[in-house]
Write a structure and sequence with these properties.
membrane; transmembrane; MFS transporter; Growth Hormone, Chain: A; mainly alpha; about 85% helix; transmembrane transporter activity
Amino acid sequence: MPLALLALAIGAFGIGTTEFVIMGVLPQVANDFGVTVPTAGWLVSGYALGVVIGAPLLTVLGTRVSRKKMLMFLMGLFIVGNALSAFAPGFGLMLTGRIVASLAHGAFFGIGSVVAADLVAPERKASAISLMFMGLTVANIVGVPGGTYIGQAAGWRVTFAVVAALGVVGLLGVAGLVPETGRPETEGVRPEFAAFRNVQVWLAMAMTVLGYGGVFAAITYITPMMTEVAGYTEAAVTWLLVLFGIGMFVGNLLGGRFADRALMPMLFASLGALSLVLLLFTATAHHKVLAAITLTLIGALGFATVPPLQKRVLDQAAAAPTLASAANIGAFNLGNALAAWLGGVVIAAGLGYTSPNWVGALLSGAALLLSLLAALLDRRTRSRASGRVVAASRTDQAAVPLGH
């Protein structure tokens, strides 16, 4: 494994920790600033919005510099945002710090995916991407529970100060280990936007929105589901989320490995199984052990889709992959926001705390249908290209004079 992948994974660990740790210290933050918990929830939604906006914006702005320099700038932005959150005197500045940190999120994973893929042989690109995302999955196993514990023991400001320090480690790692590969292959912004003329790029991003959105439909409301339906205590939810994180870790590694061998079959299998397991969760959520097992499977199957989806975008936008890759990271967060909203709608409609699982199953099922459509279009494109080659060959043969 190239050491540069380790540097990218450390950066991903810090970003994953700051994205999710706020959920564990949200009541403390709300109490300190004298705001309601729903108001403090803007620290979550504001972060997601910042990712969606920052991913394409900063990627476009970074087309004139090397990917290494851009990654270093993004880690610097991440450090500033978390330091501002740690020392914010008021809620407004805390929200500003969250948004500043979130701007780095999408562009880091988008550009980092391209860098990771370039570090290895073509047949190992999806595995390299999964190794970078491993930092994000480990954050859910170690960083988020650890950050929550620190926040409860020493205060939430210490949590964000520690996360900022993680950003410094990530910055030093990128500076020392990531090779200087020059500017992106394309010059300027236009070639990067040209990638979006390919319908397959849009299909891949739609699969991202719906497929990973299916996971968030369930996980957003996991606390009331586990406490009110399964019968767990609130304290146990932290350990249930650790199980979810372990599932993410395993699924991410397997998704990268099998996507290198057969990308589209891997997508078919993971999306189909995810939709089925989310359906089963409506029943297993009523049993403690089965609920814990199902939650782990959702984490594994959900994150098994990440490396193949990211690799799919890189393949379909091969001439100008950087912006498309970053936009796909924004698509993950768009899916998170959409699924969380839809899950809230069905709960508010009185359908119960397990109803978001039905929403998630429908979203993941829709992503499976889109993947089948993408494969069909691929087949037709290859068939047409093969037909043109055969026709051209026959024309060449007919043009050869007799006697030759």
